[in-house]
Amino acid sequence: MSGKRGIVIVGGGTAGWLAAAYLARVFDGRVAVTLLESSEIGIIGVGEGAFPTIRSTLQFLGIDESRFIRAASATFKQGIRFDDWLHAATPEGERHRYLHPFEAPFYTEGTSLVPYWLLQDHATRPPFADAMTIQNRVAEAQRAPKRPGEGDYAGPLNYAYHFDAARLAEVLRARAVELGVRHLEGKLTRVDQAEDGSIARVHTAEHGALEGDLYLDCSGFRAELIGKTLGTRLKSVKHQLFTERALACKLPYGSPDAPIESFTVATAHPAGWTWDIGLQGARGIGCVYSSAHMDDAEAAEILRGYIGHDDYSARIIPFEPGYRETQWVKNCVAVGLAGGFLEPLESTGIVLIEAAVAMIADFYPHHGRADASARRFNQLMTARYETIINFLKLHYCLSRRDEPFWRDNRNTASIPEALQALLEAWRHRPPSRFDFLVDLESFAFFNYQYILYGMDFRTDLSGARADFPDMAGAEKLFARIRSFGARATEDLPTHRALIRQINEGASLGA
Which residues, 6 or more positions from 251, have their beta carbon under 8 angstroms from its beta carbon? Predict the structure, then answer.
């Protein structure tokens, strides 16, 4: 590293500004952080949702939750509801749906209720999420996950947010500047490399040359540093995750008092799925699809049919599902879309940004070479991408839909070997925390349980029934969960009411 301690970030958006604010907060002025942003490059904002880890990140940055909700047009997100993934709607209108809530299944005194649910009659037992947590009932009743006065980033139920991506970037930018980040608006014109291939400096028309010890490429799919300059290639995973296009739009509510769902609605269609998320003043809706199974015109028709009219404007967002196995090269690290993108499902984009930035903060080489830190970073990020691919593929490969897209997803050749091994094990026992290495996972073992059993996967515990003798005690706990769910639905405000209170100036602080 050179004598000057400084980080130069190329690109704004969620990745750039989250990285800038986080690193400025960690280093507290000891390392200069400069961010170069071009107004000519817009924010893609696919998905406009996050995972519950975002709460810890925003809290660490010192951003007031109520202020964030107001400024980012944010709403609460308690999970994802999957419609028509197991099978298509029947001519009689029968549909299958299940919730992947963020709240962990009820667990007490060292005993899991999962085996007792599995041993119940398959034909009469309630859906897995409904049996295991109160969040299923709360979310379906369009209730908020908390009440006013319960404190910033706290509440009885786990949650994340839906938000306007451009406005989120503005919130992060304001906080980053407060923390001392130097914000420069300008266009990257040239990148100089040193003799060893590292980045020596970046040039702009407006500000001349910018130098630092470490350069973060947050330039999105353009990958100005990691791709165009350093030549690091993207590893495609299109053979496993087939979707690579999205048709997205925003749709106003029919009335100011329209209920706001507190989960993403993901509805399967013949060659992919649509997202439907509730912001404060509009719904974000998008059709995600595989161009190998559906053309743009067919996707537009799917979106039009979902919305029910054609009074909207949509844009096509192409993407290549994949990631760079080498995301830290010499003194350059890719963060966000520059490092990779898989697809909008489960909002993994921001999760990966959070993981990358936290590691960069820990691995920042204050003295000497960065090679060892770079190797470890690349190992961990590659492993994290691979485990996310397994989790995303799980949603598809369990479907019983008969369209070519879904049949291809069931083809063993498209299912990662690691996932195949886990599915074989889970035929005889439920997913366990010991199936996963925490530092490599973005999702807990119970997240897999919600998808697995939401999609009617069969785990046969009949031969082990004697190992779970307290069925009467388990039934009492299931009844308590139902009772708590009914009480929470009565006690918690509607989602729309709480969002309105916050926007009228009420604080979530205790």
Answer: 282, 283, 285, 307, 312
Give the integer Cα–Cα distance in Å for 114 and 181.
Answer: 48
Structure tokens at 257: 């008092």
174 — pLDDT class (breaks 50, 70, 90): very high
CA distance 155 to 96: 30
Element (H, E) at 188: strand 188-193
| 3-class state of residue 122 by DSSP | coil
Task: Give, in order, the Cα–Cα distances in Å from 191 to each of 7, 200, 230.
Answer: 15, 8, 10
| 3-class state of residue 456 by DSSP | coil
- What domains are there in the chain, each with its CATH number? 6-75+161-235+322-385 (3.50.50.60)
Catalytic residue at 238? no
* Distance of alpha carbon 323 from alpha carbon 233, whole angstroms: 8
Averaged pLDDT, 369-375? 84
- Burial of residue 2 (CB within 10 Å: 0-12, 13-18, 19+) is exposed
The token duo for 424 is 């074989």
pLDDT in tens, 480-508: 999 999 999 999 999 999 999 999 987 77
Per-residue confidence (pLDDT) for residue 43, from 0 to 100 = 60
Active-site choice (4, 77, 238, 330): 77
| Average pLDDT rounded to a whole number, residues 414-428 | 98
CA-to-CA dists, residue 105 to 96, 433, 447, 448, 459, angstroms? 21, 13, 9, 12, 17
